[in-house]
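Researcher: Before we compare anything, I want clean individual predictions. No alignment, no superposition, just each chain on its own. First chain goes here; please echo the sequence and then give the structure tokens.
Model: Echoing the first chain and its structure:
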Amino acid sequence: MRAGIVSLWPRAVRATRPPLLLRLVRIGRAGKAVYLLTSVLDPSRLGRREVGELYRKR
């Protein structure tokens, strides 16, 4: 799986709304990687390091 922009289009609203654009972020190492979604598409506004910090605080 690769990190990047993904679209999510819930079935209930496919006919009436555009898909949600989300950013898939991979944190960790191979074998222990965690993939997270964020609505912040710009990595300069929310980098991988900050995503990892937020994940650890959950």
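Researcher: Okay. Second chain, same rules.
Model: Second chain and its structure:
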Amino acid sequence: MGAIAPGFLWLIAWRKAIGCLSCEMYSGWNEFHQTSCMACSTLLAGDMGGTKTLLALYGIKDGRLAQLHQQRFISSEWTSLEPMLEFFLNQRPNDIEAPQHGCIAVAGPVNNRNARITNLPWQLQEDQLAAAASIRQLELVNDFGVLIYGLPHFDETQQVVLQAAGPQEGPIAILGAGTGLGMARGIRTEGGLIALASEGGHREFAARTEEEWQLACWLKDDLGVDRLSVERIVSGTGLGHIATWLLQNSDTNAHPLRPVAEEWRTNKSNDLPAKVSMAAAKGDLLMQRAQMIWLSAYGSAAGDLALQELCTGGLWVGGGTAAKQLAGLQSATFLKAMRQKGRFEEFLGGLRVTAVIDPEAGLFSAACRARILAESSGTLS
């Protein structure tokens, strides 16, 4: 095939995208398109936390991302991410090409292409990681903010609709209760989706009821703090705090979770939040009450975020608790609290709200971002 002027190729691609030109009208286009896709079809994705790290290679099949290879690492067993990346890529199956673009979601803030990992003494730098992996372009993204890139591409196996609504344009947002409360928003532009990280989980908790006020006063005293952030209550840890508060009453001395809560209160040595959920599922009335308080506060936080971002493009609920607490997120307790915002109740009732239930949503979203990087560089179509 003879040389094709770059400007002419761009014109062909643009006219095809808007439906004005068939590929067959230019005989060299298919050959060029297939060759460029085959050359750079593998993408690197990672989801790195203080405990474990997932690394994967993705390809594109029928226009969708398809995972080709994955490996799980214990983060603390490695001195840094660079040797882990080298090992993973060197051990990949022989029939998988080396990636040229990648994205790694990290548990920590990312500033100026640098990241410090929470719970690990690691300082990461994009250029050094790219060099270690022999990869053309690698981007670090906060592990909650990266979900923004995956949201438009999740299928029905990765998400569940909590509140249905027709398709709308506009900003999108996500929050998710896990160890803390993550938040992020996405802005649609002509150049694509822009993800903006947030620390909204640390904003002030505002009690809405007498019960929440009493809880907040007790928790501030118990933690020895002057202010209470939303994530102290709306998080997996927060569910433990709520249960522990309810178990302080003298009439709960015989409750089987009382000693468990006291131990957790001291050193967090057991998974009290999980035990609370299990007890509630088995009919424990006190733990059901704890769960209702938690779900109501969670719903209110979701409504606040939706108003703050005016996310007409949709609101998602993710985090480590989403799949485990799916029935609660579908309940009137959560949804009513989300919508109960005075004059904006109708607006909130018209938003599409969806729960992300895929345990590998972060890894998939990192692959989505890697695909965007490849496409924007012109090496992937």
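Researcher: What stands out in the second chain?
Model: Residues 1-39 have pLDDT under 50 and may be disordered. Additionally, Residues 195 and 290 are 34 Å apart (CA to CA).
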